[in-house]
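Dear H.,

Thanks for agreeing to be a second pair of eyes. The structure we're designing against is below in token form, covering all 752 positions.
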């Protein structure tokens, strides 16, 4: 397959009629006759713009001669400065792309050594034929392009291009089956030949076995382990939910005591049910915006953990050593833990430390995050406790959806038993893994190697800071005009003037008003700048409501109509993430649409004009304006004091009555009763997870008793959903039924 990587020529004279310009154009023509595209840039001082082309170029040719006829033999100081800036900007993003200098009079004697050492050659006008020079440049370009392939992706491309007849599944046989049907033709034309030819099964021995971690798959996993500074890596093709379950099943037996972050992803709670473990929970903080806060450092002490074990009525042997710790590193809202500090605190006290880094696989590639990720090479190796890290490489890296990986760092005294672990891996892995997902894991890791990872992460950080500064500037301008409101961003009061600053600039410090989490220990938690929470007017950090307010659901609906889909919508907050794929155009479009929303709200624009399709589906809003609806929802939130309810329901004590696995068995055996939410009492025990979305963190797990805080929230959800259709509070675990035209909510409870 021919990939499109052009040669980029940087020459201010490229389009002029002087000798230098005509010579460079002749060279460009010779390169194109060899079958490679040429892109010419005449504005050599656009260093950043040219550097950003380093990902798409197979080579750069940079002119070092000035356009004037009376040019001196010695290069001017500014010319050298500009050349150095260009070379450094390219090398900060790409260490290997070939760079050539092109000159008529200048030679290496006119250039500093720090520039020359980055070059692959020096081309002098008219000394060789253009055809020869073109082949010389393209030879280096081909070597460079060949070096780009990580192990598995190389083999998959080779296989797809070999045009082999396949007799193995899948049944579409490289896409041929789709060509036999009109709708199949649509599918084939949409996804394309390469994807379908690369969709193979594990019968293709040349590609290796994802289930056995052999061949090119194993080489690729080893390569990823090296890049992430781990001892082992296992690619997973069905998400980090599965990765978590693999780690659990490899380490936990029925009755084992496990220490679990109460705000963990529900996959870890599913694993508790599946393994028959006895959990004790670390309880995080929350603020009144509904933002998930950190677990206090005191919760990680063995004294505190032992006290939880002693207090748990379901753990018979109180002397049992905890087998596993699960920590969400970082929280959904961007609060990160000093993982190295936690590892030191728990090393040897808990056998396995599992850091769920689904939302931060980028952290190990930028010095800003030092110590705030779990695997840090030899400096972070534990003596006795094995460290597992699960990462969603599709979330903040560039892999395909469902791509995930498990990283392992051996303890000095306890190396991983790979065979034993793979038995658990096989319990959850599909025997028909998607090879395109494996390839995307391979490529996503390779993209982060060396300067590439630093540059990509730095782009995310810088775009996030630019957005934050822009939001502040707009708010200040509205205030200067006497306007009363604008959206704010949840962040420290002072932002670095330039760049991202230091960890201290983003540190959560004790009792600071902006974060609302109370007493926080020094050097324990920072806010990841790329995780950005936009706050709506109407709710204060202490949970008090203003007279007027704009619920976030209304803003999110408006943005969705304009193609801007928000990651998480709270009561008065919108959460967006500056991934490595975010661009200036994307976040500036968000800012623009927020301004448009403000204008429509201030004018109380009729909903039939703003949301015509929505109003057609829900005619109850036909006579309302934007401000009318916002205020109606706001008044309902205020009446029920929902900010306090949502805060309290996550931190209120919960009483375990049955082991989660036992409660689940009641559900499977149908030894349950379906209880109307209006009839719930604190004596009922849930048989299923009760999980509000967002944020998707369960309030209760099977076997736990309802408390009044959870009951109050469920009753609020019932009332709110009936009053504001289209803006429903989504709670998984509730059974919704219409009885006599009335919406009713039920919960499956264990029959005791």
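And this is the sequence the design step returned. I haven't edited it by hand at all.
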């Amino acid at each position: 397959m021919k990939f499109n990587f052009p040669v980029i020529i940087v020459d201010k004279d490229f389009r002029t009629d002087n000798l230098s310009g005509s010579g460079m154009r002749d060279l460009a023509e010779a390169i194109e006759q060899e079958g490679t595209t040429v892109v010419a840039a005449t504005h050599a001082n656009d260093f950043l713009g040219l550097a950003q082309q380093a990902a798409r170029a197979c080579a750069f040719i940079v002119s070092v001669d000035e356009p004037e006829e009376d040019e001196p033999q010695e290069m001017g100081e500014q010319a050298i400065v500009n050349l150095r800036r260009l070379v450094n900007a390219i090398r900060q993003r790409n260490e290997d792309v070939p760079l050539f200098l092109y000159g008529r009079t200048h030679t290496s004697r006119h250039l500093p050594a720090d520039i020359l050492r980055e070059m692959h050659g020096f081309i002098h006008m008219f000394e060789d034929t253009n055809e020869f020079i073109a082949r010389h440049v393209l030879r280096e370009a081909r070597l460079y392009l060949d070096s780009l392939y990580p192990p598995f992706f190389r083999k998959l491309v080779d296989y797809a291009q070999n045009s082999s007849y396949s007799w193995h599944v899948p049944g579409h046989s490289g896409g041929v089956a789709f060509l036999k049907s009109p709708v199949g033709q649509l599918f084939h034309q949409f996804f394309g030949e390469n994807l379908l030819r690369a969709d193979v099964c594990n019968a293709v021995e040349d590609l290796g076995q994802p289930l056995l971690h052999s061949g090119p798959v194993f080489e690729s996993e080893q390569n990823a382990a090296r890049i992430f500074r781990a001892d082992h890596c296992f690619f997973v093709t069905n998400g980090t939910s599965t990765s978590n379950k693999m780690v659990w099943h490899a380490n936990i037996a029925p009755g084992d005591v496990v220490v679990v972050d109460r705000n963990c992803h529900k996959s870890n709670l599913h694993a508790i049910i599946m393994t028959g473990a006895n959990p004790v929970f670390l309880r995080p903080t929350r603020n009144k915006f509904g933002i998930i806060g950190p677990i206090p450092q005191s919760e990680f002490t063995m004294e505190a953990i032992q006290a939880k074990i002693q207090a748990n009525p379901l753990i018979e042997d109180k002397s049992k050593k905890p087998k596993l710790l699960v920590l969400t590193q970082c929280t959904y809202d961007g609060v990160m833990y000093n993982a190295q500090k936690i590892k030191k605190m728990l090393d040897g006290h808990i056998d396995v430390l599992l850091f769920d880094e689904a939302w931060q696989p980028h952290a190990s590639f930028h010095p800003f995050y030092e110590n705030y990720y779990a695997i840090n090479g030899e400096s972070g190796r534990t003596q006795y406790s094995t460290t597992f890290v699960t990462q969603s490489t599709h979330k903040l890296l560039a892999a395909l959806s469902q791509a995930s990986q498990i990283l392992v760092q051996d303890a000095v005294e306890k190396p991983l038993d790979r065979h034993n672990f793979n038995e658990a891996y096989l319990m959850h892995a599909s025997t028909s893994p998607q090879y395109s997902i494996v390839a995307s894991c391979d490529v996503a890791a390779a993209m982060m190697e060396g300067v590439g990872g630093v540059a990509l992460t730095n782009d995310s950080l810088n775009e996030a800071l630019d957005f934050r500064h822009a939001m502040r500037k707009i708010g200040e301008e509205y205030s200067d005009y006497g306007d009363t409101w604008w959206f704010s961003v949840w962040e420290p009061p002072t932002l670095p003037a330039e760049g991202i600053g230091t960890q201290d600039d983003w540190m959560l410090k004790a009792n600071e008003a902006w974060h609302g989490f109370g007493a926080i220990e020094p050097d324990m938690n920072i806010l990841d700048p790329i995780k950005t929470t936009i706050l709506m007017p109407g709710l204060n950090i202490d949970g008090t409501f203003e007279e007027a307010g704009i619920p976030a659901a209304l803003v999110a609906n408006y943005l969705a109509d304009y193609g801007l889909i928000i990651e998480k919508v709270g009561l008065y907050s919108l959460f967006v993430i500056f991934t490595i794929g975010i661009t200036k155009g994307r976040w500036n479009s968000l800012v623009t649409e927020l301004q448009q929303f403000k204008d429509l709200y201030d004018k109380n624009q009729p909903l039939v004009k703003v949301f015509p399709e929505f109003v057609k589906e829900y005619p109850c809003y036909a006579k309302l304006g934007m401000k009318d609806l916002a205020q109606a929802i706001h008044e309902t939130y205020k009446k029920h004091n929902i900010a306090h309810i949502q805060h309290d329901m996550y931190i209120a004590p919960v009483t375990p009555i049955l082991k989660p696995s036992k409660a689940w068995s009641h559900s499977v055996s149908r030894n349950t009763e379906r209880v109307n939410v209006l009839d719930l009492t604190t004596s009922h025990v849930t048989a299923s997870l009760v999980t509000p979305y967002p944020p998707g963190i369960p309030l209760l797990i099977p076997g736990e008793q309802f408390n009044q805080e959870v009951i109050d929230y469920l009753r609020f959800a019932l009332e709110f959903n009936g009053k504001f259709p289209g803006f429903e509070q989504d709670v998984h675990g509730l059974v919704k039924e219409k009885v006599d035209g009335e919406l009713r909510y039920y919960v499956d409870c264990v029959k005791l």
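Two observations from my side: The longest helix spans residues 451-480. Residues 467 and 588 are 8 Å apart (CA to CA).

Warmly,
E.
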